Amino acid sequence: MATRSPKPSKPSSKSPAKSSKASKPKVTVRSTVKKSAPEATSIGDALEVQSVANKQQISPTQNVAETVNGSDLRMDQRNDRVALVFLGVFIAALFFVLGASFGNSQGNSLVDGAIDELVANSTADVDRGTLERAAIEGALKASGDGWANYFPTTTLESLNNLTANVFTGIGVSIREVRSGAIEIAGIQDDTPAFRNGLQVGDQLIQINGTDVQGASLTTVAALIRGDLGKEVVIQVNRNGSSKVFSLLTERIDVKSVDASQITSDIAYLSINTFASGTSSEFFAAFKSLNSSKGVVIDLRDNPGGLIEEAVSIAELFIGRGVIVSYRANGEEKVFSASNPNPSRVPVVLMINKRTTSAAEILAGAFQDRNRGVVIGEKSFGKGSVQEFMTLKDGSKLELTVALYLTPSGRTIEGVGIVPDLRVSNSEIKVKALQILGGLAQLGSKN
Q1: What pLDDT, on a 0 to 100 scale, did the predictor assign at position 162?
Q2: Between 20 and 30 A from 192 (CA), which of 25, 51, 147, 221?
Q3: pTM of the predicted model, to two decimals?
């Protein structure tokens, strides 16, 4: 989880330009743990139960015999106890041997054996680490988890920089699509990518001669970013045609929110990505604009990002209640709003087929809570929860562990958010203004 940015002031239900300062609402997460079923009876418990059962089978006549032949019976009992202890020790030893044997067989798996043979017998100079990485990535692909990733220790810095606000690069955000390809998800204005003609949707084929088809996001990001002034030669697939671009890296100050005044009383805010600090940037922009008749939130081509940032923005308009939830490993995690003074202005959200992940969660929350009208195209459909697992060498696996649910319990993964009104891209801004005009009229009558 990224560190949350300082909490900015929040607008009141009146026009943001006239609102008084209020602290940024705190995202509330409620967790409840469902207890698992009782564990199976252990070996020691089974032996104890058997011993009690044997004692309970002694009849009154046997008790009389014990009194008459006490010494012999006591000797038999001692022998029985010795035999029982011996049996318990034998079973425990057996399980220990079997467990050790199982552990050794796991450590010397078929994969390890195959890699040993390749390293020992290959005519080429084969690096064992490269083979192990290929084996792990192959296993992830075979698992069927389309969002699983492997991050070697050499790429962990790139992983941490994916949601950074400042970096050296060419000004693009990237994402992985279901086919495994890496495509450009967004391009920031006045950057090398923007000036050289790269486009959203371009699929990356090679970077500086390195084939990146099937590579992980962090690997691709590390190749694109680098020292200031580094030349980056990118080959892309654009609608079936190959194109090559040569760019020089620059210092990129990520601007995740673009804001403007559509009309004198309607604000427009486009969220490009959910990076660290996006919610603070959104609050500041929203407060500086006049939105007395409504606000348009543009989520088109948004690749997602930090879920906490999306929840904070939802909380500005949805004062209380569930924003999104998921259940993983028997534990339910709920992200809830807690804002005593949310904005009441009408809201229209614009989405398209490239609206992904956290952006879909934001649109789904507005839709389920009847807080805004969602228009455009059906969104991408990426609503799964990934968690990181650290391996013994410090490298990490990113695995899907759960599915996000909207406030009404809808699944986003593989389904997407269906807009309340389907609108073509060429007409979407005009339609947004028409809807806000109608909502404003309804509000005035009420």
Answers
A1: 58
A2: 147
A3: 0.67
